[in-house]
Specification:
The structure is a homodimer. Chain A is mostly helical. Chain A folds into two domains: 2-23 and 508-656, STAS domain (Transcription Regulator spoIIAA); 94-484, no CATH class. Chain A contains 27 helices and eight strands. Chain A has a six-stranded mixed beta sheet, sandwiched between helices. Chain A has a two-stranded antiparallel sheet with strand order 1-2. In chain A, α5 packs antiparallel against α6, α5 crosses α18 (415-431) and α13 (259-281) packs antiparallel against α14 (286-307). The radius of gyration of chain A is 32 Å and the shape is elongated. At the A-B interface, α2, α15, α20, α21 and α22 of A face α2, α10, α15, α20 and α21 of B. Chains A, B: It is found in: Membrane.
Chain lengths: 658, 658
């Protein structure tokens, strides 16, 4: 039936580019393959497959198959508590690495914890509490071997700003603290639920670029907040945007800065940054940067103690509660309107904490080549925060800086977290009183030197080089955090990430194909300028599933390719080679819905009015199935669907054959 | 470099299926093509292209190019007022068709308008007003030749239920009415803005399936609402869900139904449905169904008038204001909290009205093969509703039923809308008093017979056949409207439509490819069971752009294909044919972002640890560009990227060659 059209049209050899058919493979012709339609699945199988690919794509129950019940129980326990698995093969040689790594991250985490709890507007001991219970639980349930668990800067700031909007951290101290535990509880619950219901893929919707921008912006914001401690300013804005903070800093320059504090702060900041630089330059000296904070704390505390600098206005930590975590079950708001507030804040903080932890776990797993089950990891993190919320901890997660130190110090398993946890326990029980004279300026400089690592300029440059749209998302999140607030930055990051997905789905790419000389393949003529169009035939590739969101666009775009082509032919005076056949390469069209089939029908109708035959090449299994189901196949004719573009071209340009 | 691996592995001819390489084209080898990297575009060009494809893909300014200024002005005027274009070639023969069509739709619209204004809880004349001004404006500005403009059932119901939540239509009549005009104003403004800023594609996010379900559900809801008029019930629920309505109907069965009304209503409903059936069976008799409503009105009005049935409890229209549209500019809420309410309702009603009008315009344009510019159409509809809101009209749009009649009656241009508008003008000026005795039951039966056409069972069946997920969206919207409310149904429709897009983006398909016998092409082995795997090589195709939302999934899925394959080989005891090369067919991968490149890097690292070479086949222009920009190309080696899968297979299974 297609011959009717092609025969009527004057396609002659003369108009062909010299090499367009010199290597045509005529042996393809006798073997023209039919497009396969896969065996029809029944409804249940279809749903099951979709469900499995969506939620269980990593087949988490695979190892349970064909096992005895007692074995299944053991496997189940091991799945929840991986420590039962790797613990059995734990050895002394592994412990050596874990011990050193654990001590190193403990020395780093103690001063950081005290600083981060200030970011969250909580008393300093809460940071230490959060480095005691959560790492122990994670060690039993988590599957990452390198992550270091504890409070982190970004989540502390986020929690601090969000809870501060509800309660004043000084005047309503108890309510503030209760809301913090409530938020922690719901953060844990969110994390647990995401993992348990295998919805972990939801965190993938925060794109890498958005995370880079958000982290960078938050780091700047956190560093700016530290100016309060570093400069010894007493009256400081509660806002986090750069304009408010810089105004606070300048207005207090004449009477608000404490010069003793500035000297101590800046000196130790310089020392810490130098140590960081040394650790970066020479990987073997990473421990210099790892223990520098603790050394700074010890030296500065001693210095303040003997000089009584606190009487000259140098602010000090003053008091850290001694003893291990008290219970906080009764402090969580389980009823009332504060429940809703805690839930909202908890969900946001929990998601951000997850994003950070999962990214770390995946990075190190890839470096050491072991497997991380994202969903199981979320269950572990969630359990850890739920229990944490009942033992006076606030949201803990994996820390970028400490995990890197952990890795470099040669940790082998989560035992390094246990070691760290025990050191923190010792600290809480014995030496917290010694921190009384630690100047706040030191904590500020430790935080600054920790967060500068979150500003990943190389990643930003790479994003700029690779994808401009990603870069917009990155910068949107960055400037949103720096100039407005953490929440707005986050909102911008999520919105731009979604906009990108929608744009991809609404405006898929299409391309005109040509024949690559001396081969049988047809490729985008913009990518392969040597590829030659076939006279009388327009070949268009659609690069996406055809769905309601793009079906109209695709139809219109294909027709525009056609009219562009016809216009060009007219301009060149090549009236004889009028287009008589439009081949749509369907290889990338992974799916089609009713709107998509409508669009194809309309395309077919529009083309028929112009005496142009619509031909499809290589529809995939799902598409082929649906084209049959909707009778579109019989509308355009079964023999107008080909296995490859080459087959279709041979059929519709028969005079090309020598 | 790749040879190092392949040479070390025992890939022998023996393990090959007999026909796997019998038609290999050795001449491909000397001509192995390099993958093309398109010339680097500068940033501005890149942004311009993306912007153009997103917002200007139909190149609306094309005709303005290379024209003189006066010509540009004329073209601009013609673009805004297409009547200046087609009006110049308007002829008497065209007018004949338009006149007949215009009279036919006028006879249909007058009784419908009166009924629909009741659905919107407005006085009957407002329906007629809305069929006078808007069609005139549309005729000047619209580009569809077949659409019939006026109030429609779905939008009337939507407006009625939404405004009713704010004001009582009886007790707060004036406020209700003012909010209706405010909503109409903002509906128009929304439509205008969407078109003007070329954001028309946003309405494509309401999928065809969702619209079918929503329309069907709304039709049922509207029909149920008519039971009030049809059965002469005085106390009737204000809710629209089927449970509340049926309870209202049953509780009033003994004392609330008016039997005279029921007789009149049911008799004429039967007549109308019969007329509709005749019109459907015999396309030439379509006019029977078109004029049946007017005939029903005339006969029943006359009947009530002579029998004084209104004294026996048959409810009648009673009063329609005489005269043309009064101004309503001063009634629109431009300030205060009602502004916000009007805005919210207007945006929703405007979007739904747009969806209906654009779908109609596109359908008929495809049938008569002329072009509709969706965005320009929205500007026309928006202007029409903004002006309408100032002239006592409520939201007007294209009506499914009247547009079909218009088309079948042989309309040629929008002049048929002008004719209809003039007939409505005449009605308003002269004969409205005659409608005084028209029984409400007739209006109810006219509405029922009009909306049954909106329940498209065939479309639902087709959706079921083609795509089960679409069917869920369709039924979700349908039952949401029927059992809860119009808003909830709409929300469900939008939510499921979005979920589908997100699912597609998060869980793209992947497939293992095999060689189709006697060809050089590699296809999904599930679709083509005869396709044979190449020993030692696993070929995987990824069917989507690789973005942050799916990059982890894709990496893990590819690794699972690999471990599945390895497991199977182990089971079969084919240890010799260990996989040594993984080819990723990139043809359908239209784009990649930084997360995607990270995933590929991690995949490469995981594979390298297993001594498996990662090979890419046919990356598209954008992907090739980004792979270069990120230095991924040099990571895996430039010579491990091939033009086709076949080329890659030849290189990595060299012993296959005879």
């Amino acid at each position: 039936m297609s011959n009717r059209i092609t025969d009527a049209l004057p396609v002659t050899d003369m108009e062909l580019p010299a090499d367009a058919h010199s290597h045509e493979h005529p042996e393809n012709l006798p073997y023209v393959h039919k497009v396969g339609v896969p065996p029809k699945q029944n409804l249940f199988t279809e749903f099951k497959t979709t469900f499995k690919e969506t939620f269980m794509h990593d087949d988490p129950l695979r190892s349970f198959k064909d096992q005895s019940n007692s074995k299944k129980l053991l496997l189940g326990l091991q799945a929840v508590f991986p420590i039962l698995d790797w613990g059995r093969s734990y050895s002394l040689s592994k412990f050596r690495g874990d011990l050193i790594a654990g001590l190193t991250i403990a020395s780093l985490c103690i001063p950081q914890d005290i600083g981060y709890s200030k970011l969250a507007n909580l008393a300093p001991q809460y940071g230490l509490y959060s480095s005691f219970v959560p790492p122990l639980i994670y060690a039993a349930m988590g599957s990452s071997r390198d992550i270091a668990i504890g409070p982190v800067a970004v989540v502390s700031l986020l929690l601090g700003t969000l809870i501060q909007d509800e309660f004043d951290p000084v005047k309503q101290k108890l309510d503030y603290q209760r809301l913090a535990f409530t938020a922690t509880f719901f953060a844990g619950l969110t994390q647990f639920a995401l993992g348990f219901f295998r919805l972990g893929f939801l965190i993938d919707f925060l794109s890498h670029a958005a995370v880079v921008g958000f982290m960078g912006g938050t780091a700047i914001t956190i560093a700016l907040q530290q100016l309060k401690g570093l400069l010894g300013i007493k009256k400081f804005t509660k806002k986090t945007d750069i304009v408010s903070v810089m105004r606070s800093v300048w207005t207090s320059v004449h009477h608000g800065w404490n010069w003793e504090t500035v000297v101590i702060g800046v000196a130790f900041l310089a020392f810490l940054l130098l140590a960081k630089y040394i650790g970066k330059k020479n990987k073997k000296l990473f421990w210099v940067s790892a223990i520098a904070p603790l050394i700074s704390v010890i030296i500065s505390t001693f210095f303040v103690y003997i000089t009584h600098a606190e009487k000259k206005g140098v602010q000090i930590v003053n008091k850290i509660e001694k003893g291990i975590n008290p219970s906080s079950v009764h402090e969580i708001f389980f009823t009332g309107e504060n429940l809703g507030k805690g839930f909202r804040i908890g969900v946001v903080a929990g998601m951000i904490a997850l994003t950070e932890a999962v990214a770390i776990a995946r990075t190190f797993a890839a470096m050491k080549d072991y497997h991380i089950d994202g969903n199981r990891e979320m269950v572990a993190l969630g359990t850890m925060n739920v229990i944490g919320s009942m033992t006076s901890c606030y949201v803990a997660t994996g820390s970028f800086s400490r995990s890197a130190v952990n890795y470099m110090a040669g940790c082998n398993t989560a035992v390094s977290n246990i070691v760290m946890s025990l050191v923190v326990l010792l600290t809480l029980e014995v030496i917290t009183p010694l921190f009384k004279y630690t100047p706040n300026a030191i904590l500020a400089s430790i935080i600054i030197s920790a967060v500068v690592g979150l500003i990943d300029i190389n990643a930003m440059l790479l994003i700029w080089k690779i994808d401009k749209f990603d870069f917009i998302a990155c910068m949107g999140a960055f400037f949103g955090v720096v100039f407005v607030s953490v929440e707005i930055g986050l909102l911008i990051a999520v919105a731009i990430s979604f906009a990108k997905i929608l744009l991809q789905v609404t405006r898929p790419r299409t391309a005109v194909l040509g024949k690559v000389p001396r081969t049988n393949v047809y490729r985008n003529i913009q990518q392969y300028p040597e590829a030659a169009k076939v006279p009388g035939i327009l070949i268009v590739r659609v690069d996406s599933a055809i769905y309601f969101s793009n079906s109209n666009y695709i139809r219109e775009r294909i027709l525009r390719w056609l009219s562009d082509e016809e216009e060009q032919l007219k301009e060149n005076g090549e009236l004889k080679s009028k287009i008589h056949c439009l081949i749509v390469e369907m290889s990338p069209v992974t799916d089609i819905d009713t709107s998509g089939i409508h669009a194809l029908e309309e395309l077919h109708n529009s083309l028929r009015k112009k005496d142009i035959q619509l031909v499809l090449a290589n529809p995939g299994p799902v598409v082929a199935d649906k084209l049959h189901a909707s009778d579109f196949t019989s509308l355009i004719g079964e023999d107008n669907i080909f296995l490859t573009v080459a087959d279709a071209v041979i059929t519709f340009a028969p005079k090309m054959e020598p």
